[in-house]
Specification:
Order of helices and strands: EEEHEEHEHHHEHEHEE
CATH architecture of the largest domain: 3-Layer(aba) Sandwich
CATH topology of the largest domain: Rossmann fold
Radius of gyration: 17 Å
Number of domains: 2
Shape: globular
Largest sheet: 6 strands, mixed
Number of helices: 7
Number of strands: 10
Length: about 220
């Protein structure tokens, strides 16, 4: 599903080596936590997976795509395979909940019929079917994160990357979001979660990849923080 082979990445403008000789593979349907201090390389890894960045060395495979040889015109197809949840939600403020989720389908050319079928289904899945006509400003932080998840899910990608999905939420809402991510994973979606939330990592007993200064220092099944 996802494989990194001896991947290294240095940012030329700063000279920072974000990743150094990183190798791992993630199988279909796994739930994986990426942990480590800020600047450890976790965000760079996510950017490499969606080809927002390219490695200096090594090979990357995502689903059926070989990223090293991927043509620029094929990048949108890669990104359909990877749903992204962002820490700051990145919702369109002047669009309703329904329109925010529908927009993710519009950009890949989905038909109106597909949008009418899929958007209500995914909003119901995340518990927001009754708030489809509201604007992001009318929602709580937890509800906005649910919209972000719905948007990531609506095109049925095999992989979702969640970047600090509970960072700006209260404890109870954070639990609800993590439970929802686990439910989505149980339906077969591969889940990669970047987090500093030690309690969730310790109690969920999922696979843990730990990074330090760009180096993968630990790959532990049923691990802790």
């Amino acid at each position: 599903m996802i494989e990194f082979k001896n991947v290294s990445k240095t940012y030329e403008d700063t000279g920072v080596k974000a990743l150094s000789d990183v190798s791992f593979s993630i199988e279909k349907g796994e739930f994986v936590f990426l942990v480590g201090r800020s600047g450890a390389g976790k965000s760079t890894l996510s950017k490499l997976i969606i080809k927002e960045e390219s490695p200096d060395e090594g090979e990357i495979f995502v689903d059926k795509f070989e990223l090293n040889t991927l043509a620029k015109k094929e990048i949108p197809y890669l990104r359909r395979s990877v749903g992204m949840m962002f820490q700051d939600f990145r919702l369109l403020p002047n669009k309703t909940v329904y329109e925010n989720v529908a927009f993710a389908m519009q950009v890949i050319g989905a038909s109106r019929g597909e949008i009418r079928r899929n958007v209500p289904n995914v909003l119901n899945l995340v518990g927001l079917g009754h708030k489809a006509r509201m604007l992001p400003s009318q929602l709580s932080g937890g509800e906005q994160q649910r919209v972000s998840l719905a948007r990531a899910l609506v095109n049925k990608p095999p992989v979702i990357i969640a970047d600090e999905p509970t960072a700006n939420l209260d404890p109870d809402t954070s639990v609800q979001i993590m439970e929802l991510l686990a439910e989505v994973n149980q339906r077969g979606t591969t889940m990669i979660v970047t987090t500093h939330a030690k309690d969730f990592v310790d109690t969920m007993h999922k696979r843990v990849l730990e990074f330090r200064d760009g180096v993968l220092i630990r790959d532990e099944k049923e691990g802790a923080y």
